[in-house]
Automatic annotation (TrEMBL):
The UniProt record lists the keyword Kinase: yes
Signal sequence, start to end: none
Protein name: Thiamine diphosphokinase
Keywords carried by this UniProt record: ATP-binding, Kinase, Nucleotide-binding, Transferase
Superkingdom, taxonomy of origin: Bacteria
InterPro entries in alphabetical order: Thi_PPkinase, Thiamin_PyroPKinase_B1-bd, TPK, TPK_B1-bd_sf, TPK_catalytic, TPK_catalytic_sf
EC number: 2.7.6.2
SMART domains the UniProt entry points to: TPK_B1_binding
Length: 205
């Protein structure tokens, strides 16, 4: 089952995001993400979290039968919602409203891709960028000339990149030493391989 999760970072829907949310087999709001959905007239199937951000008016409009309280403070509302999606049988998750606003929240949300990406196919979507975790190897169709960034979640022992202006052949990447920021596609398909770590591929939509 495909799911869409709307988090609570500052966010404005664009037409494709509305379409994906409307067609989702499971539409979930991470707490205040329900406010974003209400702005475009979409009721989530469930609202999950500690419920300190969803407005009282939106909560009443959605209905208490769709509210899933998860009050623990050991996980963020987005992580709680990812866990709930797994409980409901989701196999793919598109995450919206996860990267704006506070930088510490954005970094935590990016880290969730590495934390859960082997248990379900998940990606974060912005209007012009999709962010996809890579655990072993992957290939992506991209327009020639497009900007592609490949960032390690911490340290990656060996990384291979092909189809890009600046390829790699088994070299290490680390956030504190070297990354592959603002690379450029020179072929219509980009190939990424990693050993000993997790990469995030930043790709054009």
């Amino acid at each position: 089952m495909d799911a869409v999760i709307v988090a609570n970072a500052p966010f404005r829907f664009w037409p494709e995001a509305v379409r994906r949310a409307r067609q989702a087999g499971l539409l979930l709001a991470a707490d205040g993400g329900a406010n974003h959905l209400a702005n475009v007239g979409l009721r989530p199937h469930f609202v999950v979290g500690d419920l300190d951000s969803v407005s009282p008016e939106v909560r009443a409009w959605i209905g208490e039968e769709r509210v899933v309280p998860r009050p623990d403070q050991d996980h963020t509302d987005l992580e709680k919602t990812l866990l709930f999606a797994l409980e409901q049988g989701a196999s793919r998750v598109l995450i919206l409203a996860a990267t704006g606003g506070r930088l510490d929240h954005a970094l935590e949300n990016l880290g969730l891709l590495g934390r859960y990406g082997e248990r379900l196919a998940c990606e974060i979507r912005e209007e012009k960028t999709r962010i996809v975790p890579v655990f072993s190897q992957a290939s992506f169709a991209v327009p020639v000339g497009a900007t592609v960034s490949v960032m390690p979640l911490g340290h990656c022992a060996r990384v291979w990149l092909s189809g890009l202006a600046w390829p790699l052949a088994g070299e290490p990447l680390s956030l504190v030493s070297r990354t592959s920021l603002s690379n450029r596609a020179v072929e219509p398909e980009v190939h990424v391989k990693v050993e000993g770590g997790v990469l995030l591929a930043f790709l054009p939509c």
